[in-house]
């Protein structure tokens, strides 16, 4: 009995370290998020990265220059760090596949990102090799965007390793 209690306790602790958001809850929520409309032009973003302890390990701004070529949304991102360091540039190519499903590619992303639109929310999932100090870790990003209205967007990203949240990214974006 003692072993069963310990196993249940450990399962609860591990479950508490992971995050799972049900996008269907946002399907009827407004304002609707249309990626192509929000990111077609200049967007300014402010963000932080917090480690598992909640400490801010990165603080940054991003200048995003978005445009549409054919049906592909292209986001040229330029990062400036006030705390920590990370990529200086990233270019996303995001392609609508129909029915609210998207695919995305960027130079530092492993494979293809998979995106799904849910009313005022959008979920982007992808993997990347993330450099931390002198090591690189293969991690999964569970990236959530919510339209806030008035040309603003909130982004919350969960960085996972072995299904456990290792860091969280919070970004606020505003159309310029």
Description:
The protein has 176 residues and is mostly beta strands. It is built from two helices and ten strands. It has a single domain (41-175), classed as Lipocalin.
Distance between the termini: 61 Å
Strand content is over 45%
Rg, Å, rounded: 17 Å
Task: Enumerate the spans where pLDDT stays under 50 for 5 or more consecutive residues.
Answer: 2-17
- Broad shape: globular
The CATH topology annotation reads as Lipocalin
Give the arrangement of secondary structure elements.
Elements: H1 2-16, H2 35-38, E1 41-51, E2 56-69, E3 72-83, E4 89-98, E5 101-105, E6 110-118, E7 121-132, E8 135-149, E9 152-161, E10 164-175
Antiparallel strand pairs: 1-2, 1-10, 2-3, 3-4, 4-5, 5-6, 6-7, 7-8, 8-9, 9-10
Notable characteristics:
about 180 residues; mainly beta; Lipocalin; 10-stranded antiparallel β-barrel; 2 helices; about 10% helix; globular
In short:
With 176 residues, this protein is mostly beta strands. Helix content is 11%, strand content 62%. The chain has a single domain, classed as Calycin beta-barrel core domain (Lipocalin, Beta Barrel).
């Amino acid at each position: 009995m003692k072993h069963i209690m310990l196993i249940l306790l450990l399962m609860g602790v591990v479950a508490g370290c992971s995050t799972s958001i049900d996008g269907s809850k946002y399907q009827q929520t407004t304002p609707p998020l249309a990626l192509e409309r929000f990111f077609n032009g200049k967007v300014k973003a402010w963000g932080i990265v917090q480690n598992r302890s909640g400490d801010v390990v990165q603080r940054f701004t991003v200048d995003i220059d978005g445009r549409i070529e054919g049906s592909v949304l292209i986001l040229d991102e330029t990062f400036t760090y006030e705390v920590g360091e990370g990529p200086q540039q990233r270019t996303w190519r995001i392609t609508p596949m129909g029915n609210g499903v998207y695919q995305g590619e960027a130079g530092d992303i492993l494979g293809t990102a998979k995106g799904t639109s849910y009313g005022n929310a959008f979920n982007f999932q992808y993997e990347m090799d993330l450099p931390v100090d002198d090591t690189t870790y293969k991690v999964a990003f569970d990236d959530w965007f919510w339209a806030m209205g008035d040309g603003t967007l909130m982004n919350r990203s969960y960085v996972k390793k072995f299904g456990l949240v290792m860091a969280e990214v919070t970004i606020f974006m505003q159309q310029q």
